[in-house]
User: Fold this.
Amino acid sequence: MAAHWPGIEQAPAAMRAAGLIDRLRAVDPDVVDYGDRPVARWVADRSDDRPNAWRHVVDVLAEARTALGAMFDAGHCPLVLGGECTVVIALVAAAVDRFDDVGLVYVDGGQDLMIPTDHPEEPILDAMGVAHLLDLPGCVPELAAVGARRPLLRPADVVFVGYGDEEEDVHGLVPSTRIRAPEVVLDAEGAAVRASAALDHPQVVVHVDVDVVDAFDLPLADIATYGRGLRLDHLIRFLTVLLSDPRVVGMTLVEANPDHDPDGSSIARLVAALVGALSGAGASAEGLRLAGRGSARRRAVGPDAKPVHHN
Assistant:
């Protein structure tokens, strides 16, 4: 609902059609499929001077928060397929409900720190999700309040990874740890270690927007990044290490637009890469457990548009 236009609501179904669930279960038979929430397709709704369709966004995220809470209560680690970037608000809210002290690794071509009052000419909440997690001045109060506390996170709770736009925190309000795209390109595994080390929280959630990948390598993102993003293999190497951290309790994967992929080849590559990262992370995490760190966890699949959970 917070997107720039329709299209990305089709992504979960496309990833299912590309065999995501079966491929995950081939790696781990304990994967649980929670099915899909009702599809929420973009609409133009400027009934007031706030960002487009903000009431719809609040409703969708509140419902997703409840659904994700049930998954956490079942001991599952959700992989949530969107959809657009505000989906992370629902995941963070549900994780805070369950665990309280939660950090966020935000892997995205942007930092989504735009403040509505600064961007009346582009009233799209897709680029404002983290601003609302942090409850920056001028945010939509009802969206910033989707959760048990306000703000849901502080700047020290967030690590930004892979971004290309340096101009989003124009007011200098967010002194978070930042790992830019060229740093990930140079050393993806090292960047993952740095991202984990920057958070001392007992639980961590991960957000991934496919626009962090150069559209010349993976022409799939809703809003393309050309020439300055990661390659898909950089992202997967990064995620394989990051997701081996036993503190990771959930992940969003968003912004894939099947309208940009008429033959399905980019979705197929994304599914294969995701399964590879999750299976590689499982092997890495098992090594950590054998060394006496972390604890065994199960996997599952869940909501927004179409989700999958990884316990």
About this structure: The chain is about 35% helix and 10% strand. The chain has one domain: 8-309. Residues 8-309 form a domain with the Arginase; Chain A fold (CATH 3.40.800.10). The CA atoms of residues 132 and 140 lie 7 Å apart.
